[in-house]
Amino acid sequence: MSRNWSLTMKLRAATLALALSAFPAYAQDFSAQVTELVATDLRAWAADPALIAAVIAANDAHAPLTQPQIDSLDTAWKAEVDSATRPTIDPVLASPVSQALKAKIEASGGKVLEAFVTDNRGLNVAQSGVTSDFWQGDEPKFQETFSKGADAVHVSAVEFDESAQGYQVQASFTVTDPATGAPIGSMTLGLNAEMIQ
Known about the structure:
The chain contains seven helices and six strands, in the order H-H-H-H-H-H-E-E-H-E-E-E-E. The protein has a single domain, classed as 2-Layer Sandwich (Beta-Lactamase). The longest helix is centred in the first third of the chain and has 20 residues. It is 40% helix and 19% strand. The protein is an alpha+beta fold. Strand 4 and strand 5 form a beta hairpin. Strands 1, 2, 3, 4, 5 and 6 form a six-stranded antiparallel β-sheet that branches. The N and C termini lie far apart (45 Å).
């Protein structure tokens, strides 16, 4: 058992080392290409009327929450990530808007690896898969988009995504109410860096 575990760990280390050795090929700055993709294609993902309605409803529902209450929800979410019982996570994943995001990712042909949407407090509203936390409000993906206005875009550094076994860059942007143009939340899409041109 110990020998098998050791072999498994060595194989994982070798796989990671191989992936990291290829990193310079994907270490270029994709900001310009990703920002262009957001403008020409990805913002449309956030224009779905059902998604807009879900974000507006979440804004109303979460408006009374204090920061300690948000922290408590975030702690509960994190505790459920690897649990069989997930009363905080499962309702978000099961929502029709989350299912629609998942379908869009499957239809993207491997270009988009993940998607999640927050309300105006940075709390998850919809997502294609389980995120590591519920509150994104303390992260650049939210801070550099929602609070910066309707046209804001944040592009992350390229990172190796172990679950996808490939390089990913996150494109985050403000979600707006089409009726008013006002910011109402944020969207983050994890893009396959190897497929960005």
